């Protein structure tokens, strides 16, 4: 809860290298969100324990090895942390309006409504994995799998764009009432 959505790819699945198409996003956890950081660390630890105990997905030695992958990484110099998550199935996307969760139609997303930088809550499952890679080795670690995304508030855009309202705010202020003024007669039209 109260994390920042980044690199949002919630509407159309994309391929990364030769993988199957996936929906994905990066979850950025501000350094002051101690609850979310603790929860992600606990879920990662539980997934590691599950990977060691169940069917030997990996061993304790694998989990301590240098190449073992865990989701949470430093995100910025400000002390925030981030992890990437994905899913092959479309995630359920909602916007919180007041005390209601409003589903978002995937066919017509509004980029001014859901964007990289918005504040959100997500439901993510953490699970162990061990997959063969092209070099013949095995990649082991904990993956994060997105199920639900809910925008809860606006945040600063991370893509550098501004909203339409902000883009034309100065022009609208300069025009004032002239912007909506009706013509007096047909002669007022230059064509």
Count of strand segments? 8
Radius of gyration: 23 Å
Strand order of the largest sheet: 3-4-2-1-7-8-5-6
Assign an overall shape: elongated
Q: Sketch the major β-sheet.
A: 8 strands, mixed
- Structural class, judged by helices and strands? alpha+beta
Beta-strand content estimate: 35-45%
Written overview of the protein:
The protein has 191 residues and is α+β, with helices and mostly antiparallel strands. Helices cover 19% and strands 36% of the residues. The protein contains 3 helices and 8 strands; from the N terminus they run ββααββββββα. The protein has helices at 34-53, 60-64, 164-175, and strands at 3-14, 22-29, 73-74, 81-87, 92-97, 100-103, 119-132, 138-153. It has an 8-stranded mixed beta sheet. The radius of gyration is 23 Å and the shape is elongated. 21% of the residues are buried. The model has no long low-confidence stretch (mean pLDDT 87).
Brief digest:
The chain is α+β, with helices and mostly antiparallel strands.
């Amino acid at each position: 809860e109260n994390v920042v959505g980044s690199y949002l790819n919630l509407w159309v699945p994309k391929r990364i290298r030769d993988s199957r198409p996936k929906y994905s996003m990066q979850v950025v956890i501000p350094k002051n969100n101690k609850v979310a950081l603790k929860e992600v660390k606990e879920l990662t630890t539980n997934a590691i324990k599950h990977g060691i105990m169940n069917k030997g997905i990996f061993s304790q030695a694998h989990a301590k090895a240098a190449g073992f992958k865990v989701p949470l990484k430093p995100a910025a110099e400000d002390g925030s942390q981030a992890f990437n998550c994905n899913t092959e199935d479309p995630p359920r996307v909602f916007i919180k309006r007041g005390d209601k969760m409003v589903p978002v139609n995937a066919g017509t997303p509004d980029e001014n409504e859901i964007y990289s930088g918005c504040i959100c809550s997500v439901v993510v499952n953490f699970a162990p994995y061990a997959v063969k890679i092209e070099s013949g080795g095995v990649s082991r670690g904990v993956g994060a799998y997105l199920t639900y995304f809910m925008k809860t508030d606006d945040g600063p855009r991370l893509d550098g764009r501004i909203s339409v309202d902000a883009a034309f705010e100065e022009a609208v202020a300069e025009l004032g009432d002239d912007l909506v003024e009706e013509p007096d007669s047909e002669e007022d039209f230059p064509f």
